[in-house]
Here is the input.
Amino acid sequence: MKRQFVKKQPRQSKPLVQDPAQARAYAFLLLKYRLRSENELKARLKRKGYAEELAAQTVNFLKDRAFIDDRVFARGWVASRLKRPLGKRKIKLELAQKGVASDIVQEALGWATQDYSESQTVAQLAKQRFSKLKGIEPLKAKARVYGYLIRRGFAPEAVSEAMRSLGKEIE
Here is the structure.
């Protein structure tokens, strides 16, 4: 039996909502769950069907009254992501995707990583992850640990150093 594909009809675009009170209420609802960047909030308002201009006005309204601040958002995001733990590269990428300016990202990373040693964190994670892979041949386990650490956004230099020290401990 041959499959027949049905062409999807293009979605009817929603009529743009123009009520500022509704837009603010929706923005407050989003902020109730977690802090958001200015661009993230603007994008969510547009996706909900609010006009571009109304979304910008709503974000400015919230910004003027200090309900949203990209600096505060970035600091909170960095602090929470370092606890997971994730590497600086991944955190920087996530904040860029959320529309936070690069100077704010650098400032937040600098502020949060004053007492943070990425190499120690990588070494600790590598040991933990390697210990979980006892039944696998060591070379394959090291490759998996390396991939795991790189995907978590740690610097390749720190990961390579941790893998070298892990290799010395194994032998």
User: Anything to note?
Assistant: The mean pLDDT is 89.
